[in-house]
Hints:
Blueprint: E1 10-11, H1 22-28, H2 44-63, E2 71-74, H3 77-92, E3 98-102, H4 107-117, E4 122-126, H5 136-142, E5 147-151, H6 165-174, E6 178-182, H7 194-197, E7 201-205, E8 216-220, H8 235-238, H9 246-284, E9 289-290, E10 301-305, H10 311-320, E11 323-324, H11 340-344, H12 349-352, E12 355-359, H13 366-392
Parallel strand pairs: 1-11, 3-4, 3-5, 5-6, 6-7
Antiparallel strand pairs: 2-8, 7-8, 9-10, 10-12
Amino acid sequence: MEEPRLTDRIYLDHAATTPVDPEVLQTMLPFFGTCYGNPSSVHGTGREAKRAVEQARKQAASALGASNREVFFTSGGSESDNWAIRGTVRAHGFKGRHIITTSIEHHAVLHTCRSLEREGFEVTYLPVDGKGFVNPDDVSGAIRKDTILISVMAANNEIGTIEPIEEIGRIAREHEIAFHTDAVQAAGAIPLDFHSVGADLLSVSGHKLYGPKGIGALFVRDGFRLDPFIFGGAQERSLRAGTENVPAIVGFGKAMELMHERGETQKKQITALRDLLIDGIQAALPDAVLHGDRYKRLPGNCCFSFPGVEGEALLLRLDLAGIAASSGSACTSGSLDPSHVLKAIGLPDEMAGSSLRMTIGAENTREQIEEVIRTIPPIVRDLQALRSVSYGSGMR
């Protein structure tokens, strides 16, 4: 079978990354050439770059209802999560050594917490229900006198569940505990206002928002004490040293601006395609299991398991058919272990191993989704039949 050309492919892996928006690219291009200054330089070339960085900071702040002073540029979501957690415990560790998070966080949060456990901190990993929701009452119940940080993601990257972070934020404020939310998947997909959420810290990544890779931001509530993450210079108000990646920062700012401008229209378009895809798959494959809540989920997220199907085999067959999807988080796609998120919602290993995550983006069309609905069912049935024959013949 001839592999489809890239231009003919249907891309349904927007939770892994998004294409750079043409307007974002055009905004970035001058900063690879004529506008090449170092923002720390005092001459005109440097000042031009500095103005561009501050304009991007203003765009990012405005998009999430924050002040310019509350935006700190990072290399992406993973760094923002690491800095939020480590920077908080270093600055507030004198108050206690207990952290609260959930069992379905991104590994950027979970692995950071586990590394801190090896340093003597204690971490409570809250369970979630079968749809992936954390119970705010469980958050309240886990708080101790020595709790210094609560970290709960705004929306899950695998099953799309939108968490009750505003309620959790209120709980954190009532107990005067720092609150961080990983909003990497949520920003641009759901209404999000930094101050309304009640977070002290919020993580965002550019390449999930039709911006470039290698750039993100940590929003830090003005007045919140956070330890520096990288030492060596006065950049980012001496909290994150290193010469700024000006082209990426400029692109990130533009992507945040476009996200804010297009948000509601784009959300309606993507949600309609999501519902079409879910309904189509469930109608054609009644045994398909949808993970997460049917409606309280990210606009573009569709995560299924298909009994009797190996997820990797399904992905390969879809790839040959010109459809790009995922079996879970892009950051763990090389792992043979079942998704920690699917296990946390109670799935057995075999069902977790049969998962397929399809995430819809702004450039997808109704015609593409209809093609996906036509393509998936016969592939699933074929793989189920092959597995049945293999088991019936005694093969393992």
